[in-house]
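We store chain and fold; example below:
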Amino acid sequence: MNAEFLPYLNYYKKLYNQMFREPARKYELTQIEIDILLFLQNNPSFNTAKDIVALRGLAKSNVSNALESLRKRGCLASDTDRENRKLVRLTLLEEAGETVRELKDCQKRFQKTIYDGFTGEELALLRSLQEKCNLNVLRALKNDSVGGDSK
C-alpha cells in the first residue's frame, strides 16, 4: 500500500491552524493555547497537564508555559486532586466561555470543510476505517513492532 496520505497530514494541520488565525489574533492566543482550551472543552475527563502532553503529543515545557499563560488570563483554574495530591486538575473558567465558544465554532467549520460532500454512509465508513488504522497503530506501538517486519 502506498502511503500517499502522509504528506496530507501537514496540509490538514496547516488548514486547521489557518482556521484559528482570527480568534488567535482577537484573543491574543497562541495555537498551543487554543489547542489546550479545546482539548479541555472536548475531553473533560482528561484534565491534567499530563493528559494533554500524552494525548495531544505536545512538549511538556510548551504545555506548562501555555497553561501558565491561560491561568494568568483567567481562563483556567488548577486545583490539587483530593484523592491524589500529586495530580493537579485543570478547569475551564466562565471567563473563557466566549473564547471557547468561538474556538469551537472554528473547529466545527474545519470539520465541515474537510467532510464537505460526504454522505452519512461515507462518513460512517471513514470513521470505521480510521478506527481500524488507530488500533493498528496502537497495537504496533504496544508490541514495539514499529520499524520491524511483522510479516
